[in-house]
Every structure is written in structure tokens, then in C-alpha cells.
Amino acid sequence: MLIERARFGDRRALGRLVSCVEDDTDEGRRVLAAVYPSGGGAWTTGITGAPGAGKSTLVDGLIGFAVDQGNVAVVAVDPSSPFSGGAVLGDRIRMQRHTDDPRIYIRSMANRGHLGGLADSTPRVVALLDGIGFAEVMIETVGVGQAEIDVASSADTVVVAVNPGWGDSIQTAKAGLLEIGDVFVVNKADRPDVDETVTELLRMLDAGPERAWRPPIVATVATDGTGLDDLWAAILDHRRHLTETEALQVRRRERASREIEAAVRAGLRRRASLDSGGVELLNRVAAREVDPWSAAGTIIDAM
Length: 303
Ligand SMILES: Nc1nc2c(ncn2[C@@H]2O[C@H](COP(=O)(O)OP(=O)(O)O)[C@@H](O)[C@H]2O)c(=O)[nH]1
Ligand SMILES: [Mg+2]
What we know:
By secondary structure, the protein is α/β, with parallel strands linked by helices. It is built from 13 helices and 7 strands. Strands 3-2-4-1-5-6-7 form a 7-stranded parallel β-sheet, with helices on both faces. About 55% of the residues lie in helices and about 15% in strands. It is globular. It has 2 domains: about 35-245, P-loop containing nucleotide triphosphate hydrolases (Rossmann fold, 3-Layer(aba) Sandwich), CATH 3.40.50.300; about 250-303. The longest helix is centred in the C-terminal third of the chain and has 28 residues, at about 245-275. Bound molecules: guanosine-5'-diphosphate (GDP) and magnesium ion. The site of guanosine-5'-diphosphate (GDP) has 21 residues, from helix 4.
């Protein structure tokens, strides 16, 4: 059986499972239903930030620490990620040293088409990897759109990567990231203005609402590994906080709630659009015989 083979490290079997879960086929649903009860053991870490902030390079470095905890899966939701075959050649070659390691599984979600699809399928893939028995699941997403920020923020620990000078960037892009970060990393600390950026981050975090967890700020140079030990220590600190305060259960429960809601919405959307009665109703709305809200009620009642 594919699930057993995947649990024993058969990467081709795992790849097939991930594909059917991504595509949300009937088999994919059976697979998720089968593995979900044995999940919950994986620590999930989301890494988000602007394109080019160094997320892939950071993940690449963090893998080295994470393998001490057990098998590691990386889900790259970044089309330009070296994990997905994007980015410059040097990066890609560097990342490839992990692809031969039997403890490490790297999956790119780059070819999933539109963002909504990614936001739908990534949590399912993460749940699968968790259920298969990975100890660590890392999710790299570009922190630009709300959908991608949502994907990152469904992790146990959210790492937000910025660069020196980030304080000068536009305000709106920052607010969402400030809100979701459990750990902030000022990467490219080999460049000027690191201290100013750390100070500015501290100021912005202090201006926000008081939280039970005060997000630490770590400076790193991902390309040479400087500060990665501190970053990993900060991630482990946050995990300790989660388990000691029961925030972990709260967070995972919220995640499950969002997931159920999203799945219900997606299911309803599919049914509503497949329903031929929907087209007829749409015609009537277009002709102003029925209003859109009454039409929605009719569709929902018919389900
Ligand atoms: N100078 C410097 N360059 C870095 C550092 N970290 C990453 N880079 C480079 O920045 C570019 C983008 O990195 P990448 O990890 O692909 O960023 P991502 O788009 O956030 O995943 C690459 O050329 C990296 O080699 C760093 O700490 N210092
Ligand atoms: Mg990347």
C-alpha cells in the first residue's frame, strides 16, 4: 500500500500521495482520512517575507538543524524558489545537496496555478506529510498576498524574514507581516543598517497589541550560516512557549476551524457552479427578476 511504503521512506510512493492530495481526488481524500489520525506529531514552521529576502536560503540552512529532530519535509510555495527550480543556478545547486538525503523531502507547489489553489492545497499537503510521520515540516511562502500570508500563518511557528532597510518600505505591506510573525529575522546582515532595522522592528512590535509571546528578532547571513543557530534556538523557544502555555492546542484548533470553513466554502462553490439550476437563476438575476441574495438562498436551500 502506498501509505505504508511512504512511511518506510519510499519517495516515489510519497510523491504520488502528495499529488493526489494536491489534486483533491477521491483517492487523495481517502489518503488524508487514513493518515490524519496519526498526525499532530510534526512541528510546522512557516517562513514568509518579500521575494528575495532570503527565505529559501534560510530554509536550506535551517534544514541542517531540523534533521536533528527527525525527518524533514519542505513545502515551497514560491514559484521562484531554488527548490522549485527557479532562482539563480548557484542557489539551485546548493539546495540540491539535500535532495539525496533520505531524511529530507522537498516538494515544490510551484505549478499549482493560481494562488487560491495553492492556499487550498498546501494545508492538505502539510497534513499529509504530518500524518506520514515527518517530524518537521517547513513551508516557504512569499509574503505578498493575503492568501500566501494565510498559508504561512497556519504554521505552529511563523518566521518573518526581512532585510536591512525594511523599515523604509511601504507601510501596508508590513502590517500583515508584523501581525503574524512569531520570530523575526533580519537576513542579509552583511549589509548596512542592520541595527537600525532591528530597532525599527522593535519599535513597530512594541506599538502593536501586547502579546503573551514577545517575538524575538534575530540577525542572520543566510548565505554563510551566521546567526542560523540563534534563529533555530528562537524557533525552539517559541515551541516551548506553545507547549508550556497550551497555545499550541489553541493555534491548532484555530487552524482546523479555518480549514473546515475553507473546505466547506470550496465545496459549496463547486456545487453551486456545477448546478445547472445556477445558470438559470443567474439568467433570472441578470433579467432582474430575482435579486442575487435571494438567488443564493435558493441555491443553498436546494443543496
Ligand atoms: N548578501 C547576502 N545575500 C543573501 C543572503 N541570504 C540570501 N542571499 C541571496 O539573496 C538572493 C535571494 O535569496 P533567496 O533565498 O532565493 O530568497 P527568497 O526569494 O526569499 O527565497 C540569493 O541570491 C541569495 O544568495 C544574505 O544573508 N546575504
Ligand atoms: Mg524562495
